[in-house]
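Exercise: predict the fold of this chain.
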Amino acid sequence: MQSKYSILALGIAAITLATSASGAPVVAITVAPAALNFGNATVGVSTSATQQVTITNTSSSAVTISALPITGSGAGSFAVSGVTFPIQLAAKDSVSVTIAFTPANAGSETASLGVTATSAGKAVGAGSVSLSGTGVRLMIGLGISSLAYGSVLDDPSSPPTQTFTMTNAGTGNLTVSGISISGGGGEFSATTAPSIPFTLTPNQTVAVEVRFDPAVGGTATGEVSIVSSATNSPSVLSLTGTGIHWVSLNWTASASPEIILYNVYEGTVSGGPYIRLGSLTGTTYEDGESGLAPGSTQYYVVTAVDDTGLESSYSNEASVLIPTP
């Protein structure tokens, strides 16, 4: 008989543990996982990092969740999405919600996710979730906004180049996935640049060299576009340059040993008048500085000067039609 009474007492104790003081069922809400660490996320990028938590009603009574408040110093960087309040949870039911981390500033952010719930009109206690993450600022800096090449002879033997640098001005690693040059009719091109894609660590700098090789006369404009994981992508650098036409003159050297230099003259009308462009000791002259207007005809003559300063008469006249453009 003693054994029988002991078993009955144990059974009554178990039932008592499963009920509240008023005899109502005990309601328990669990939240898992207990902590979320979002790692690094880009400052200012909407929903740059998301994770989920599962809220479970472990009791035998229905529960109403009216809010999932986020509190703490970094509360403004975390947000709940994917749910509409109130949330009704039947006994043993669960719901998954998405937590987004969108850091407003660079650095560590922490907060806590809570659950506001009731059952039969009474508040229900629930667990909480610790939230943490680090905001990183991804910013690419170019230092300059444009490259200007000025006037360059069209079809030059040594096209001019200029260099710009790109720097990771942020607080996290960024990836450069593209460097493209557009505009200018193909007259602008990158001669040195890292292989795509590549990563820049904070404060790391790389150089890119751009060439201007005008094939025709006239003003050329273009731009360099840099696509990256930075918040200011694409980063753009403008390009400008002017191709100017030029004329190459060649003549046969004088057989006289007294000749020490030659004068080159140009005119816009056949037979002159002519304007002296320059003096040189050789027999080749390139004219690209005298305002060669597209569509115009230029006329050239050469004279020889001896060691006493005596200048010869004009040579035979040579003419050239400047192309358009």
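Check your answer against the key: The first strand starts at residue 29 and ends at 32.
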